[in-house]
Amino acid sequence: MYHIIQIGPISLPMKTLVLIGSAFLALCWIYLLQIRHTSVKKWTIPIEWGYAVLWVIIIWKLSYVLIHPLETIQYPLRIMYFDGGIFGLVFGIAVGVYSFHKSTSKVISLFTPRLQMGISGLLFWFGTYSMLYTLVFTVHHINILIGVYFITLALTYWYKLSLKNIHHTLRLIQWGSAGWITSQLIFEEQEPSQDIWFVFIVWLFIFFIDMKLSRKRK
């Protein structure tokens, strides 16, 4: 059964609407976090965060053309259903982070607070998406708990006295990565995918950085 909303001649998949709706909630959360920790009232940071996410998705999708040029020429619509894999994702993230840094540097000079607001937005987005997806499609109800888990991680930034210390974000990336890997392993019937291994490598990398910084503080 396909979940599609028909608006005149336009057919919109419910999954896309859930993705957009949860992204909008994440934008609002970033704005609330911004006015909580800074004196900036403009929507520049949330909007640029949204643009950065779009850059990641677009490059991730378009990188399929570079990896499979002949198949794309023969079947152009494949780009809607396939992506560039880990290579495209990493490249997209690099461009997205650079775009976010460049476009928000004049709003808040320090990069650490901007980075932490962006990470909090991603956690909030993933959490709300998991919850809304479960409510709409009635899949594994444990996804609601997964959503609550990621939203809780995002909300911890609200109670921080300052966003200038990167230590909190390093810990949350570890907790977030571990939570995502665990949720994937619960529902994966086959062997762990490349995505899981990629996130595990990220977790390992962040863990060693956090450990080194913790030793320096001592």
TrEMBL record:
Membrane-crossing residues? 12-33, 49-67, 79-100, 115-135, 142-159, 196-213
Task: Output this protein's name.
Answer: Prolipoprotein diacylglyceryl transferase
**UniProtKB keywords:** Membrane, Transmembrane, Transmembrane helix
User: Which superkingdom does the taxonomy of this entry point to?
Assistant: Bacteria
